[in-house]
Amino acid sequence: xxxxxxxxxxxxxxxxxxxxxxxxxxxxxxxxxxxxxxxxxxxxxxxxxxxxxxxxxxxxxxxxxxxxxxxxxxxxxxxxxxxxxxxxxxxxxxxxxxxxxxxxxxxxxxxxxxxxxxxxxxxxxxxxxxxxxxxxxxxxxxxxxxxxxxxxxxxxxxx
Length: 159
Hints:
By secondary structure, the protein is of the alpha/beta class. It contains 5 helices and 7 strands, in the order αβαβββααβαββ. The chain has helices at about 15-25, 40-45, 95-100, 110-115, 130-135, and strands spanning about 30-35, 50-55, 70, 85-90, 120-125, 140, 150-155. Strands 3-2-1-4-5-7-6 form a 7-stranded mixed β-sheet. Strand 1, helix 2 and strand 2 form a beta-alpha-beta unit. The radius of gyration is 15 Å and the shape is globular. The mean pLDDT is about 85.
């Protein structure tokens, strides 16, 4: 696979990767449901994670042989037939909303993710994502997994 990683062109930084990598190691994460392709997609794939990624724009899907991805029209998500150790929500991007003259939001992404995992990481956690997670029975993790300028916020399902 030829890497296209171009740090700094999107919203996912080296610090974000270190944060996510540490979470994967600390929690022994083997599978990830990812919302929004980009640098994180390539890194998760190269890290050996069992990855399924959901994307709204085909031009954002990296050319990775064997990558499992679904193209969808937000907020109409595909129905999946399995569970994941983690959902990483970094999509859809602002373009889907701005082109329609709407304010960007991601409130439906965590609702979809909550059907497939008990652990959800929000990247850019201020886009209407927190309230649906709380209503779906999740709580914010207090164990230091909320960092990088509060851009990464981890939620776990209440047991």
